[in-house]
């Protein structure tokens, strides 16, 4: 997995093997991203810029789905909910936790 950023605050994960983006761009404060780091377990990306505070982005699919389910209060997302919260990820049933 790779990560790119731009002067306008764009932040994009990439599949290095296929040279394809993974999902859509991550939402940032819009300022230039000048520092990027993966967490030691590769589940989170940390990004900051000269005028942007440190941002944390969950990139592990299991953690991302868990966070979405927690935010929506629903452990089993419907296909419509999945499309709303994960528009670039094909639908799949969420496992019991």
Walkthrough of the structure:
The protein is an alpha+beta fold and 97 residues long. The protein has 2 domains: 2-58, no CATH class; 60-97. The model has no long low-confidence stretch (mean pLDDT 77). It contains 2 helices and 6 strands. The longest helix has 12 residues, at 61-72. The protein is globular and about 40 Å long. The strands form 2 sheets. A 3-stranded antiparallel sheet has the order 1-2-3, with no helix packed on it. The chain has a 3-stranded antiparallel sheet with strand order 4-5-6.
Number of helices: 2
Could you say how many structural domains there are in total? 2
Count the beta strands: 6
Sheet with most strands? 3 strands, antiparallel
Shape: globular
Task: From the structure above, extract its key features.
97 residues; alpha+beta; three-stranded antiparallel β-sheet; 2 helices; 6 strands; 20% helix
Summarize the structure.
This protein is α+β, with helices and mostly antiparallel strands and 97 residues long. Helix content is 20%, strand content 25%. It has two domains: 2-58, no CATH class; 60-97.
List the helices and strands and how they pair.
Blueprint: E1 2-5, E2 11-15, E3 20-21, E4 35-38, E5 44-48, E6 55-58, H1 61-72, H2 79-85
Antiparallel strand pairs: 1-2, 2-3, 4-5, 5-6
């Amino acid at each position: 997995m790779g990560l790119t950023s731009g002067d306008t605050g764009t932040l994009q994960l990439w599949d290095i093997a296929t040279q394809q983006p993974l999902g859509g761009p991550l939402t940032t404060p819009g300022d230039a991203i000048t520092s990027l780091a993966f967490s030691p377990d590769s589940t989170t990306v940390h990004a900051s810029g000269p005028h942007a505070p440190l941002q944390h982005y969950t990139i592990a699919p299991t953690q991302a789905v868990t966070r979405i389910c927690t935010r929506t209060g629903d452990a089993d997302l419907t296909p419509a909910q999945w499309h709303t919260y994960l528009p670039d990820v094909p639908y799949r049933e969420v496992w019991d936790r």
